[in-house]
Amino acid sequence: MKITFWGTRGSIASPGQETVIYGGNTTCLEITLPSGRTVVIDAGTGIRKLGDALLKRDAPLDLHLLMTHVHWDHLMGMPFFGPLFHPDCRITLDGWSKGFDGLKAVFIGKHVDGTWPIGFDAINARVEPRQRLTGGELRLDGITITSHPLQHPQGGLGFRFSQDSGTFVFLTDNELMDDGWRGCCFPDFVRFCRGADVLVHDCQYLPEEMDTRRGWGHSDVSSVARLAVEAEVGKLVLFHHDPWRTDQAVTDMEARCKMMVEELGAHMEVQAAREGTTLTV
Ligand SMILES: [Zn+2]
Ligand SMILES: [Zn+2]
After folding, report:
1. Across the chain, which distance is largest between two alpha carbons, in Å?
2. What is the distance between the alpha carbons of residues 173 and 171, in angstroms, rounded to a whole number?
3. Which end of the chain is more exposed for a tag (fewer CB within 10 A), N or C?
C-alpha cells in the first residue's frame, strides 16, 4: 500500500509561509492498494489537488471514499474534487454513516441563504453510498479494512487497513483518554492499533494545552506516544496539526515525541505528517 498525504492540517486550512513544510490543507489521504485501486480518506481541502492528479492519470476513476466524520475540515474540499464532475467517475462512499448526508449538505446548503452556488444534481459522477464499515469490515482487492469509533464530538470512525505484508491504522479527530466518554477507552485503541506497521494519529495539542481543550476531540503528543508504544507500532506519524502550529513548532513537537517514546523504552520511527509525501506499507 502507498499512503499519500494531500492534507495534514486540522480544523481549518492554514496556508502561509509558516506552514510550507508540513502543509496547510485539511485532511485528505490517498491510499493506493497493490491492485492499483485508489481509496481516498476524507474530503478536506487537500482533495482538490488529489482530484487534479487523478484526472491527469490514465486510470479508471473507480474510487472508494471513506469518511471519518463530517466536520467541515474533512468535507469542505468536496465541491472542488474534479472527478465528481466527470461522467465516467464512480465513487463508492463508505465509512461514517452520515458521510452521504454530509456530502449532499455541502451542495444543498440550506443554512441561512445557502452556502454553495452549485447543487448536488450538478455532479456527473455516480456516488454510491454503502455502510460496510459501520460495525463491519470492507474487503477490497485482498485488503481488509475495519473500523473503530472515535472519541470525538458527534462521533466518527477510524480505519485499519490489513494485508499480508503490512498494516496501516488511521485515527484522526480522536481524543485519547483513560475513561472515554463514547464507550471506548485507551486499551480499546491499543487493541485496534496493535502491531501496526504505520499508525497515523491525531496529535493536535501539547500536554500543557489540554486543560483548556479537553472534550474537543483531539489528542496531545504524550497520549499519542503512549498509545504507539503500548500498541508496539512500527512507525508513528503525527497528524491533524493545529492551524496555529508553525513549521518550527511541528518540528519541535516531533522531536519531543521522539524523546517521549525513548523515555518509554521503545525504539520506533516518529515523524510529523508532511503534505505531498508518500509512505509505503
Ligand atoms: Zn478535523
Ligand atoms: Zn472533527
Report:
1. 56
2. 7
3. C
Between CA 272 and CA 133 the distance in angstroms is 27
Q: Would you place residue 127 in the very low, low, confident or very high pLDDT band (cuts 50, 70, 90)?
A: very high
pLDDT score of 249 more than 90 = yes
pTM tops 0.90 = yes
Residue 218 CA to ligand 2 centre (angstroms): 8
Cβ of 255: how many Cβ atoms within 10 Å? 12
pLDDT in tens, 165-203: 899 999 999 999 988 888 789 999 999 999 999 999 999
Domain ranges of the chain: 2-280
CATH architecture of 2-280: 4-Layer Sandwich (3.60)
Ligand nearest to the CA of 217: 2
Backbone angles phi, psi at 102, to 5 degrees: -65, -45
| CA–CA separation, 6 and 41 (whole Å) | 10
DSSP state of 23: -
Place of cell 466518554: 181
What share of the chain in percent tops pLDDT 90? 88
The ligand whose atoms approach the alpha carbon of 154 most closely is: 2
> Could you tell me which of 206, 179, 197, 203 has the C-alpha nearest to residue 281?
197
Q: Is 179 exposed, middle or buried (0-12, 13-18, 19+ CB in 10 A)?
A: exposed
